[in-house]
Design brief:
By secondary structure, chain A is mainly α. Chain A is built from 11 helices and 5 strands, in the order ααααβααβββααααβα. In chain B, α2 crosses α6 and α5 packs antiparallel against α11. Classes of the chains: A mainly alpha, B mainly alpha.
């Protein structure tokens, strides 16, 4: 490996990983589009009045803040922290669940706040309901250290068996998205609307704490099957796509339900 | 019998795609997307009911699942082998036979006697296999003629792109949907190439997987003439590049039409009645 390649690898590790720190943009856009499909006319109208743009346009706005030194304090907002019982332990942590609740309150009482606060609150809700449904953002007290979590994926090929290494973050943020390179967010949202049709009402039920708890259950199931430094086989890798799709669909449906409730 | 089949089975093992996965995700997705647009409402509803997803969601699934234990038996389903007379070689479980077998099992109400999970799997197989059937390099030849390298499309290289990326001829054609129109999405392809007249459409959907495979065996030799070993795509004569685009576009759109036709004949009785009337 020559010097130049080494520098590129170090730079990629330092800065490239920033992009790998959430659902990628397409996933966030998809979640926003699923939410838009759920909006009741009243909520739709009120959102249009607040934003000059669509939910999809604003879905990754919060990521831009995280990268600026003056707003880096928003970084922890993107995570969900749960205790051993999968209950949110967030009051002290200012995580995604707390921020979604706080911003939803601002939107409910929007007349008491200035326009820019209301706009920011809406953009934060759109992003963080997505983030709290991304398995790489769900942390457990006493759980694995997700920032150092790597594991292998065996390709199980009879002609060329090999294991590729990945990290928990990279896997959940990009793996399945790249398996459908031709999907635009619109196509993905349409596809997931078919997928979630049967479960629509069930998944959108409850409040932010219930959703955090549900994501805890999803992620506990995942951590039971994937341990740090272990290797998963192709079959599990393929089956996990279902979990990925379910999390995205839940995020979109719940975002829609929350917006309908705050703007009713 | 076994003695007669043995050389062909060995040939199948040697020639059938291994690393390559027919069209890549994009090519398979394009065919399935075009098919989705050509389903009748009844068929679309049925397919969505069984799949819980669109056709294009499952376009490449068999390439991912073929290396898992439950689907290991499908590993050799992705190509068909033809001799110098464009005759299909009698190797069991190749794409032509499997597509035909599944289609026949499902049509004329046959799907109603199968379990839901089997119907779902069969739809997913058809989505992928009809795509493979139209991949120019999944028509595998058992021979090379006139100095051409038909037989070894994974063994010789060609170059593509500004950085002269080297790859096997097979890989080049797997990625053709992205190389021929680098910026086109599924939707762009659909808008640009799903433009056959009613008459032309009716002609291309006629036949069976056997006749569609034979058509490929007759026509796909041309791609070896257009792009010889060690050639660089960007430096090929413009007319040849244009011809390659036409072949790529034709395979994708016809693959899409035929996949829609296969599914429509399975799930929509009104479609079958109207086809009979047309005949």
């Amino acid at each position: 490996m020559n010097k130049c390649t080494k520098y590129i690898l170090v730079l990629t590790a330092l800065f490239g990983s920033v992009e790998l720190y959430a659902w990628n943009d397409r996933m966030h856009h998809t979640i926003a589009l699923i939410a838009e499909q759920q909006l009741e006319p009243k909520a739709k109208k009120r959102i249009e009045k607040i934003l000059d743009s669509t939910l999809k346009d604003e879905a990754v706005w919060l990521n831009t803040l995280r990268r600026k030194p003056e707003t880096r304090y928003t970084q922890p907002w993107h995570h969900l922290h749960l205790d051993e019982n999968m209950m949110s332990v967030t009051q002290s942590k200012k995580d995604a669940a707390v921020q979604v609740e706080r911003c939803a309150d601002i939107l409910r009482n929007r007349r008491e706040h200035n326009d820019s606060t209301v706009i920011a609150a809406l953009k934060i809700v759109v992003h963080l309901v997505g983030d709290m449904h991304c398995p790489s953002h769900v942390f457990f007290t006493g759980g694995p250290n997700l920032s150092k979590f790597s594991f292998g994926i065996s390709n199980d090929r009879w002609d060329n068996p090999a294991t590729s290494k990945t990290t928990w973050r990279a896997f959940w943020n990009n793996r399945y998205s790249t398996e459908h390179p031709g999907f635009t967010a619109e196509l993905y949202a349409y596809d997931l609307s078919i997928y979630s049709r049967k479960h629509k009402e069930e998944w959108a039920k409850g409040d932010v704490r219930d959703w955090a708890n549900d994501m805890g259950r999803e992620c506990r199931w995942l951590h039971e099957r994937i341990k740090p430094d272990s290797t998963i086989n192709s079959e599990l890798k393929c089956r996990l796509e279902n979990v990925n799709d379910r999390c995205i669909a839940k995020a979109g449906l719940r975002l829609g339900a929350l917006l309908n409730e705050v703007f009713k | 019998m076994i003695k007669r089949l043995l050389p062909l089975l060995l040939l199948a093992i040697l020639l059938a795609p291994r690393h390559a996965t027919a069209w890549n995700n994009h090519g398979h997705g394009t065919i399935a997307y075009i098919a989705e647009q050509n389903l009748t409402p009844t068929t679309r509803e049925k397919c969505h009911e069984y799949l819980n997803h669109t056709l294009y969601y499952y376009a490449s699934w068999l390439d991912h699942w073929r290396f898992t234990e439950p689907y290991k038996h499908t590993t050799r389903w992705h190509a068909s082998i033809y001799n110098e007379k464009s005759e299909l070689q009698n190797v069991p479980a190749m794409v032509v036979m499997m597509t035909d077998k599944i289609w026949n099992k499902m049509r004329d109400g046959g799907y109603k006697s199968l379990s839901d999970s089997l119907v779902t799997d069969n739809i997913k197989y058809l989505i992928h296999l009809v795509g493979d059937l139209h991949s120019p390099v999944h028509i595998v030849f058992s021979h090379s003629t006139a100095g051409k390298q038909h037989k070894h499309n994974q063994a010789f290289s060609v170059y593509w792109g500004k950085k002269r990326k080297r790859m096997s001829f097979h890989t080049f054609w797997d990625r053709a949907s992205q190389y021929m129109h680098p910026k086109w999405s599924y939707d762009d392809y659909w808008r640009n190439i799903d433009n056959y007249s009613k008459k032309k459409h009716a002609t291309v959907i006629e036949g069976t997987p056997y006749t569609w495979g034979h058509e490929g065996a007759v026509n796909m030799r041309e791609i070896y003439d257009l792009m010889p070993p060690e050639s660089y795509f960007d430096e090929l004569p413009k007319a040849d590049i244009q011809r390659m685009r036409e072949i790529n576009d034709r395979q994708l759109v016809v693959g899409g039409y035929r996949l829609a036709h296969v599914l429509n004949t399975i799930f929509d009785e009104a479609y079958n009645t109207s086809k009979k009337k047309e005949d």
